[in-house]
Structures are given as C-alpha cells and as structure tokens.
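The freezer alarm interrupted the setup, so I double-checked each line after restarting. Inputs confirmed:
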Amino acid sequence: MGKPKILLQLDPDRQASVFDAVVAIDAGVDQLLVRNAVEVAHVRDLVFGAIFTRGLEDLPRTAIFVGGSNVAQGESIFEEVKRTFFGPMRVSVMLDANGANTTAAAAVLAAARHIPLRNAIVTVLAGTGPVGQRVVRLLAREGAKTRVGSRSKDKAQHVCDTLTSVVPAAMLEAVAASTPEETAAAIDGAHVVIAAGAAGIELLSAEQRIATPTLRVAIDLNAVPPLGIGGMKATDKAQDRDGCVCYGAIGVGRTKMKIHKAALRRLFETNDQVMDAEEIFALGRLLESE
Amino acid sequence: MGKPKILLQLDPDRQASVFDAVVAIDAGVDQLLVRNAVEVAHVRDLVFGAIFTRGLEDLPRTAIFVGGSNVAQGESIFEEVKRTFFGPMRVSVMLDANGANTTAAAAVLAAARHIPLRNAIVTVLAGTGPVGQRVVRLLAREGAKTRVGSRSKDKAQHVCDTLTSVVPAAMLEAVAASTPEETAAAIDGAHVVIAAGAAGIELLSAEQRIATPTLRVAIDLNAVPPLGIGGMKATDKAQDRDGCVCYGAIGVGRTKMKIHKAALRRLFETNDQVMDAEEIFALGRLLESE
Amino acid sequence: MGKPKILLQLDPDRQASVFDAVVAIDAGVDQLLVRNAVEVAHVRDLVFGAIFTRGLEDLPRTAIFVGGSNVAQGESIFEEVKRTFFGPMRVSVMLDANGANTTAAAAVLAAARHIPLRNAIVTVLAGTGPVGQRVVRLLAREGAKTRVGSRSKDKAQHVCDTLTSVVPAAMLEAVAASTPEETAAAIDGAHVVIAAGAAGIELLSAEQRIATPTLRVAIDLNAVPPLGIGGMKATDKAQDRDGCVCYGAIGVGRTKMKIHKAALRRLFETNDQVMDAEEIFALGRLLESE
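Predicted 3D structure, all chains:
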C-alpha cells in the first residue's frame, strides 16, 4: 500500500479553492493539507515541512499543488516552491492557478483533434490574459503561426517578445482586436480561433465568425453569457456550426477535468515531476492517444 | 462505494468549530473541507467549487454545513448558499449555527413525548434569542398556543409578528418576563415551559416552577450553573420533580446529537436537501418513531 | 475498529506546520483538524469541541497536538488546554512546538547511550534557548551535573533558579560562554557537550572540542552550516571523532522522529496522557530499551 498520499494545496486566496480540493480528492489523494492566504514568504517553511518529514523512498507519496484565483500570484509561489527544492530533497509540484494550465491544454488539444497545428494559422483572442498566454505558449511550441490578439497591440507585442526569448522558433504576430474591423482582420485567413477572454464579454460576433470561411475550429473558453464567440453554446463539443467545428467552455471542460486529475495522479509517480503548461499539455496529448 | 463523501464546513468564526467537525466525522463524512472566517462575499465561489466539480450523478456525495457561533451570520451564509444554487446545480445544505436548529428540535421533541403540543399552552423564556426563536417557530407549526417571553415585550412582539407573517395560523402571544411577577404571569396556566436563555442566567426559580400546578414539562437548555430553571439538574432526562417532567441541557443533548448526525447523513441521500429548523425537527420526529 | 482517530493540531503560526501534519498522518491519525493562528483566547472553545462531542468511552480517539515555531506561544496554549480540562472531560495532549521536546529527548537519549548521566558533567551550550532549557531539564532530572551555558550568565542563572524551584535536587551551574576563553572554561572537565543553539552559529570550535580530553560525547542540534560544533557533520551518528562520540542534528533526527510518532500514538491509548518533555523522554527511553 505505502504511506498515505498527501497533497499540500497552496492557495494565495483568503478562501482556498473548493474546486481544487474536490478534484484532488477525486484523483485519489488520501490526505489533503490546505493552506490559504499563502504568500511567497511562507513557502520555504511549508516546503521544508513536505520534504524533510518522510524518508527519501516515501517522497513520491507527498506532492504540492499551487492554485488560487490569481495566476500571477500562483506563478510566484510555484517558482518559490521550485527554488526551495535542492538535490534529491524535492516532491512533485503542479501549477494550475485559476485552472489556467489545464484549460489552455484542453483548448489546444481540442483544436489539434481537427487540424494539424504545425503551420496552421491560429488567432488567440485575449491572448495576453492568464489563460490566453498559456494557449499561445502551447501553440507556439506546436509550430502554429499564432496571432496574439489584445485590445492593446503593445501588450500583445510584449507577450510575443517575452515568449520568443524562451521559444526562439515561435511564429508569433501581435494583432490589435479592439474594434470589429480589427477583430475581422485578426481572424482573416485563420484556421482556428480561440477566445480566452473574461467571463461575459463577447470577443467575436457570430457574423464575423461565419464571414471567415477559412475557419475550421472555433473554441470559446468563457462559460458565462454573453459567450466569447457569438452563435455558439457553452456546451458545444465538436459541434458543427456553419462548417466550423465549435467548442464551448463546458464542451472543453470534460477534457480539462480529465487532464487535471491525470496530472494530480502523475505527481505521485515520482518525487520530481514539475507540472506546468507544457507538461500538462503533453500529458493531455498522451490521454488523447489512449 | 461511490466517490468519497465530502462535507464543506462553512464557519464565520476565526476558529472554525471543532465540535461541528467531530460530529461530521462521526456521521461518516470521508473528507471534511473546513473554511473559517467565511463572509457572505466568499460564498459564491465556495459553492461553485462544490457544484461544478463532480458530475450530476455524484452531486449527492458533496454537501455543505453552515455552522459557527453566531446564528445571524450563519443564516446570512445559509441564504447566500441557497441563492447560489440554480436548476439541478445544487448540493444538500444544513444550517446549525451554534447548534440552534438541532437544540430547538430536540427541546420540542422532548416536550412532545409527554404532552400533545396541539393547543397546549407553552411558554418559551428567552424566546427572542437564536435558539428561542426556533423553538417558538417549531411550536407554532405544531399548533401550540405559544407565549414568547422576553425581558422586552417589544422584542417579543416583533418575533411574534415576523413569525405570523410566515405561519399565519400561529397562535402567539408576546409576554414580558423581566421581573419575578412577570415571569409568574408568563407561565401561569402553562403546560410546558422551555428556557432558552444564555449560559449561567436563571430565568425561572424553583419556587415559581413548583407554584405553577398546570406545568407538566419543564425544559432548560442552559448547561452552565446557575441553570435557567431552578431546582433541576443539567443531566435531568424525563426526571419527575414535584409532579413535573424535567429535562436539562445535557438531558436533551443526546437527542440533539442523534438528530445532528442523522441530519448530516440525510444530506448525502440526494443533492437537494435543505435542512433548516423545520426539516431537522421532522427528521427528529421520524427518529423518535423508529 | 472504533471511531476515527482525530488529532486537533493547534498552531499559533499564520501557516500551520506541514511537518507536524505529515508526521501525524504517518503516525496513523485518521482525520487531522488543523487550526492556525491560534491564540490562548481561542483555546477554550476549541477544547470544548474536542471533549464535549464524543461519549466518554470514545474520548481516547480524540487528541490534541500543540505545535508551531514559537515555543513560548506553544507553552501558553498547552497550559490553557490543560486548564480547560476538568474531571474525566479531557483528551490526551502533546506539546512539541518547534520540535523542542522531541529534539531535547533525542539528544539526551543519544548521550545516555554512551555514558551514565548520573553525576556526569554535561555542558549545554545555548542552554537558555527553547530546546536548551528542555535539555537542561531532562539532564537535571537524570542527575547529571549540568552547566547551563549562555552568552549572558544572568540569563543562565535565571534558568537555573527557575528549574531548581521545580527540581530541587537539580545540580546546576550557570556559565558564561560568550568568548572562546569562556567556552573553554565552560567545557573544561565536561564528559558531554550538547550544543542547542540557533541555525548557522558555531558555539564550539573543532580545536576547543579536541583540546578537551574529558569529552566523551558531543551532540550538535544545528543542521545548518556553520554547524554548532566545529569539525563534525550534521549526519554524524555515534561517529568517533578524535576519541569523542559525535552526533549531528540529522544523526539525532531519526530518533527524534521515532519518538515523535510513538508519542502521537501514545495519545490515543487513553484520554489522559499529557506529553511534555519528561513524558516524551520517558517514552524515548522505553523505545531504546525495546
């Protein structure tokens, strides 16, 4: 049997995510240790508590999940967790603040079911937000020609520049998508559009979507009406609409949840897993192939 | 087997109730998620985490318990929890802040063992407090002629008016019970007296109790000396004293605990249980009949 | 089987110790209730929740652990927990804030393996700190001639005076150990030296240790370089160095962990265990003899 599987859930919010806790339990965690209002300054002692308690052979039975609603805070905590590890003194760790990593992975996987991503033209609307940036990152690594849309072209350009410094082969283009005209230009000739915007904001109208004949896949990650892409449903799952395969947020959600649970289970296989966007996407791809 | 039974314990206090946690564990909850310092503003996200995680068929395996020491805060959180549910997206929920619902149910059930409540004259001392108001509510629904005692007759009248607007058939009378003379008048001719006051305050003296020959049942919910009714013991359980059947707080406590656990188990039968005073009392009645 | 074993972990820190939680789980606790930012004013209600919930026969299935990084705060909480118990209404309780009790016990046990402590001359460097004071206390009860070292001889004298009022037979001497000359005098003729100082501070140089031919055992409880005693390793476990048996913090750690888990298990044997330094040391001695 081995020792109980312990997951340490680190959450910067005043009330730690119940969603993350329930998924952890359903992924088979035996004992969940939840810490809320976590600041970077707390991380060292919390991680020491995780790595200095059990013997080396039992370290794979302890893992850390970094969540919460704020992706930037989650990233800071995640980085500090990794910095605290040394040599073999480490446990596996996963970042999924605001579900950004699992959502981005599920969205890109949904697109990849219908079109080879290499050299495909993909427009990411709200590509500078926390989920959008991860979608862009995954697309870039897959070799897609990615247009990063934002109300501010400067912000989009900044995201492109930052990512190019990490993934030099990335094919990125910053595009403004503030007005209907700009949005039309942003998706002109695109094969895939992914809307990664905030809840309740339409980024692309039904008319514009239909008026873009090259579009083969449209994915919207906003579940709260009005949806991010017009004329779709949040429950759409590979739904054909006007010749375009459509996914809504709930339609992507089942894949997201499956990846989330599989990633949590992966944490307990060895003590050195680091599950960020890329690793979570790779795991999702593996699940798709099974 | 099904998925683990998860109870989300929402508590407005700085330190969440250990009592509520232990009872939940003993009622068979597999995983307890405790959230302290809960404010109404936190409720929406916490409830979303409970209803959006598992599939519809597994929603009965998640439930919410609202506790804490402050009944008014508990009621606000309970209302917000119910407001957040929509359509089938809900889990069962129970309110028992400060044990008010289970205590009130146990007290009224104790009285009902010895006298039919319909048309019985029942005086509730401290009937405007959190437990007292619930005792009054349950008595009114059972058809008892209920006298609501308080140091302030105005407060008592307010409780009567509020309750009458919800239970039009309620037979309620506001009575002042500040001085010994007022208290004597308040219980004059009564068949049952229930003292629902704060710890360590005597509301009715032994002499007054004995001097009221119509009294058949006396129930005191204060366990800390001096007790709420004189000449009794906290451990009294259907104890005959001067021709009157007496219950002290500890004597009622076993029934209270039994109801509390049964109500928690009930939460996991379906995903749409709402356990407030009336439902908890109905469950208690069912347990008595078994 | 009996009811689930519940441990209530009371921790004054903003983030409750993960170390303490993992050890509790590995010691077989079924349900861990963690309370952070605990103040003395919170203790009464928390303890009431632990003692008033289960029947008397099940009280041994609930226990309390007082931890956290600050030993003085832990002691205050521990005292308040004990004060709240009355008659048979109690559960077992253990104090191990900052690991001070289990560390002190493990250190003294390590020394006792190699030399009879009765009448042995033992110098405790940093003997006025939280761990040091407990080491002194255990040594005094074992009948060792104990020198309490501190940078301030006044502080050392105060510790001696306080302890003598509790253990009148204690053979204690306050010694200054601020300069190399003072430290040399403090260990002159000693059979055992135990360094209980803060992380990263050398209290005794390798040269001084080697220059003290009477020394048979040297124990250092600081794991962070520079170590508390020069020329040793944190992993030393009964390592012979220059004719002296040496233990480093990690070398003592395995015994400490074993005692910690055994003490937690002991809590669930009856409902009246009080595990402070002496009881934890006695348990450790029992484990050594097995």
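Quick read of the result. The CA atoms of residues 194 and 209 of chain A lie 11 Å apart.
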